[in-house]
Amino acid sequence: MNVLEMFVKNLCGVFNNDKQIHKQKQEGNLTHPKAKHINGIANGKIINLPKDFKGYFIIEESYYEIGERKNILPHLFLFELNENNQVVLKSYEIPNNISKEDFRNDNLDLKLDYNTLEESNKFTPMIYFEKDGVFEGESVSYFSKEVKFVLKERIEKDTLYVSEVFYKNSKITFGFVDSIIYNRVN
Description:
Oligomer: single chain
Radius of gyration: 17 Å
Number of strands: 13
Structural class: mainly beta
């Protein structure tokens, strides 16, 4: 198994942060939302994918609950190896004609055309550094002069650590500096 295959195997599946939420409730210090990630390989949903394509498109479904509020944030990512045999994450735009509710791994009718996919021009690709099967990466993106997005991830065999923070004029507007800790549930 090569580095990219090991990474994708660790990344894909169903994850939630129920253990983190339970621990925070016991300590009387609930700081994170209830969260769930469903990550799946999307290459089979993409027509016109080049025959020699070596990367993996991944649909990441993110679900967050804060009190009575629920939020769905789907993403399309491409993971591939760079010339140094490191995993690189690139973010792609979800086509405008697909709702975020329909952009799911279990949607059998979901089809994307490789020739029309657009890489995000706002997201700075993230390189993961691997040591002993653990992958870590950080990306800093500027969505405008005032808005900065910082993504930090640590990918282990059955655990994902994800910190996503939006800053506007250096003040946090959304996200968590301390990682949401997702554990595999399947």
